[in-house]
Amino acid sequence: MVTFVDRVTLHLRAGKGGNGCVSVRREKFKPLAGPDGGNGGHGGDIVLVADPQVTTLLSYHHSPHRAAGNGGFGMGDNRSGAEGEDIELPVPVGTVVKDADGEVVVDMLDPGMRFVVAPGGRGGLGNAALATTKRKAPGFALLGTPGWEGDVLLELKTVADVALVGFPSAGKSSLIAAMSAARPKIADYPFTTLHPNLGVVQAGDVRYTVADVPGLIEGASEGKGLGLEFLRHVERCTALVHVLDCATLEPGRDPLTDLDVILGELAAYPVPEGQVPLIDRPQLIALNKIDVPEAKDLADMVRPDLEARGYRVFEISTVSHEGLRQLSFALADIIVRHRAEEAAKPAVPRVVIRPKGADADFTVRVEGGTYGPVYRILGDKPVRWVQQTDFQNDEAVGFLADRLEKLGVEDELFRVGATPGATVVIGPGDGIVFDWQPALTSAAELMTAPRGTDPRLDQNARRTTAQRRERYHEMMDAKAAARAELEAERLMTTAELESERIEHGAAEEGHE
Fold first, then answer.
1. Spatial distance between the Cα atoms of 399 and 203, rounded to a whole number of angstroms
2. Beta strands in 14-124 (DSSP E)
3. 162-190 core/surface letters (b: 16 or more CB in 10 A; e: else)
4. Is 20 helix (H, G, I), strand (E, B) or coil?
5. Does the structure show a pLDDT above 70 at 125?
6. Which residues are annotated as a binding site for Mg(2+)?
7. How confident is the model at residue 350 (pLDDT cuts 50, 70, 90)?
8. Which PROSITE patterns does the UniProt entry name for this protein (predicted)?
9. What residue numbers does the annotated binding site cover?
10. Positions at the binding site for GTP
């Protein structure tokens, strides 16, 4: 059964913002008393909290999918939607958070530190919040934006003052059990320790923590054995103690050879920028198992060579506790000096993040396409505005056009060579695709149109009063002309008939 997990991938989904509401207040004798649609609630955040009581990432190993609550929809009578519920994820102190590309996002070094790893979406504005002196009754509201969704990698790096390093079965677990109240698993076979163990040591007035790192072998920095998985737990340690087994029965093993192998692995392991390399940190030598007579003789033999290299050497026995007091006080001196040096360092200046100017709010990138160039608009504001737009509502689309024009998108498209009818995409990937028409620009507030429509998108074919009057006069004139023509034809026909009648009567009289 897995009891210790120091690396896990979380699949996070922050809450979605609620949509704004389109509503009109109705009162007695005032059926249209003004907009009163409320705003949508913001989506919940996912927050990481550095908790000293948490020592492993095991809970996230079993349930890596976490989601925050969605924001509620806005309602009439200026009622805003409910805020989405935040969720807090406690992680051990020393957890490094990385994004999907492996870049470090934050290092949770301080107890109680909080970091919003997945921000929730923003709630959409209702039509009451969108009303202005020029747009008194908006027929649309903004939609809520989706929350952040993606994967993050949590990597635990043990925060300890001293790290015990050495070959498997060198006695590191026995040493930490003898120096502190820690009770790690101890056995006489290699790789007994499968995860780092922490112990608290009290040396006089100084208290410090000691980490028992799983055994290293030759090639650990290249992935052999368990060393590569746990060498990162040494990164945060101030001092190293090389625990050398003086009673090993393996052929080809001796304290000097073991030390050279471990030093080679420490030197080959890369540390993050700004940290002291492992090989350059304060190091002590602990010659272990001197309660065995042969081990005592071997320790006396190799001690001068180790001291000639510049190391402080301590002969110890985890069984009889010989030499442990001297080792603990020597480590306490190193820790005290290091803490004094850290306290004397100037405080890290605060990083002030200032809002970017309008010029940096978006970029227009020209991409090649099968049927001509494609102009892609990238930026937080344009993408968010597209997410907030209800494309089933013409007035909302016109409002989006106004916002983009005021941001300077129109001028930038002209600058990069876009022509009317060019394909424009807002956002990465598929995004929102449309054919750009420069005529769809500003002054939506000054245009009168039915609610929910924009006259720039759908030209209204309804005739004005003057046009109807002119058409009526043309129709009446045409009718009068037609009547006059008919009357002229009737008179002509009557005259012809009268002429024929007279001629016929004269002919009859001449015949008589």
1. 70
2. 46-50, 65-67, 87-91, 95-98, 104-108, 114-118
3. bbbbbbbbbbbbbbbbbbbebebeeeeee
4. coil
5. yes
6. 173, 193
7. low
8. G_OBG (PS51710), GTP1_OBG (PS00905), OBG (PS51883), OCT (PS51881)
9. 166-173, 191-195, 212-215, 288-291, 317-319
10. 166-173, 191-195, 212-215, 288-291, 317-319
